[in-house]
Each structure stands twice: as C-alpha cells, then as structure tokens.
Amino acid sequence: MQGQHDTDEQGLVEDVRSGSRTAFGRLVEPHLPRLLGLARRMLGSSEEAEDAVQTALASTWVARAKLDPAQPVAAYLTTVTLNKCRDRLRRRKAARFLSFGLFDMDLPVAAGTPDAETEIGDRQTLESVSRAIERLPVKLREALVLVTIDGRSQREAAELLGVTEKTIETRIYRARQRLREKLDFV
C-alpha cells in the first residue's frame, strides 16, 4: 500500500510542478496538521504558526520547480516550515531588542474537567514550560521539538536539520538539561 501512496504523491508532485493548484492542495493537505503543530511548538502561538505555515506553503508553491517527485514531500515541507519559524524567531528577537515588547501566549490546557485550582496550576506549569522552551537556543529547540514533541526519530531530525544523529542526541540532552535547570519539576 505504501508503494501506491508513493506513486500518488509522485504524480501530484509532477502536476504541481506543471502548475496545478488543485494538485498542490491535495499534496499538502495531509501534512497541514503536523506542520501547524510543529510551527506552534516552535513559535508558541497559534496565530504565528498559521502565518508561518501559510508563508511556507506560499514559498513552496513559488519554488514548486524544486520539488523532486522521487523524494517524499513531507521532509521538504517540514524544512521550509522550520525555516519560516526561524525567520519569525529572528524577527521576534530583533523586536525585543528594539523594545517593541513581548508576544502574548495563549496556550490552552488539555481537555478534561479538573477543578479550578488544578486548572490554574496546570496552566501556569504549561506556560512556564512553554516559555522555557521558547528561551532555548533555536538549535536546541528545533531538535527537542522535532524528536520529543513532534515524534520524529533522531535520524529523521538529523536529516531535516542537516546534522548527524549524534548532534541531535547532544542537542536534546542539552535542551533537557537547560529545562531542568530552569524548572524544578521537569
């Protein structure tokens, strides 16, 4: 069955390269939830994540001639999305440096019906962890998000980021170390 999926994707990529917007929509649609989740974890904001993914998809459309039918499109889309997240993080850092203020975080708590005190504590914990992850250097954050949160293997993350598996392992270790230093409960 995987071979049929590969053939379908290859055909869609060929159609996209020829300028078919319908094929582009069909090609990227299955990847949208994962790309949005990745961008949200990298940026800490749903609105910014949506903007980053939209920009990534627009860039992919403009550069559609670069799509290789022999290569899985998921890796390409992930790389472009990560690059757009990096761009936004650089702009955010510059804005903070220039005193334009911090960005708001609106992170929901997981579904369930905890009492008000537990919910407040959970929200505070989630916000603390999210802010600590946001403060990690981009290279550590990328490795941590791709492997620990997005569920990719270290090999996949290494291929996406153009580094060795050992580098990914080291970055994850350092990210977790820094989080432990900043948070008593991790």
Automatic annotation (TrEMBL):
Any one GO BP annotation for this protein: DNA-templated transcription initiation
One Pfam family from the record: Sigma70_r2
Gene3D superfamilies attached to this UniProt entry: 1.10.1740.10, Winged helix-like DNA-binding domain superfamily/Winged helix DNA-binding domain
Boundaries of every RNA polymerase sigma factor 70 region 4 type domain copy: 127-179
Annotated keywords: DNA-binding, Sigma factor, Transcription, Transcription regulation
Keyword hit for DNA-binding: yes
Listed GO MF terms: DNA binding; sigma factor activity
Annotated RNA polymerase sigma-70 region domain residues: 27-93
Annotated InterPro entries: RNA_pol_sigma-70-like (IPR039425), RNA_pol_sigma-70_dom (IPR014284), RNA_pol_sigma70_r2 (IPR007627), RNA_pol_sigma70_r4_t2 (IPR013249), RNA_pol_sigma_r2 (IPR013325), RNA_pol_sigma_r3/r4-like (IPR013324), WH-like_DNA-bd_sf (IPR036388)
Keyword Transcription regulation on entry: yes
Family: Belongs to the sigma-70 factor family. ECF subfamily.
Alphabetical list of PANTHER family matching this protein: RNA POLYMERASE ECF-TYPE SIGMA FACTO, RNA POLYMERASE SIGMA FACTOR HI_1459-RELATED
Protein's UniProt name: RNA polymerase sigma-70 factor (ECF subfamily)
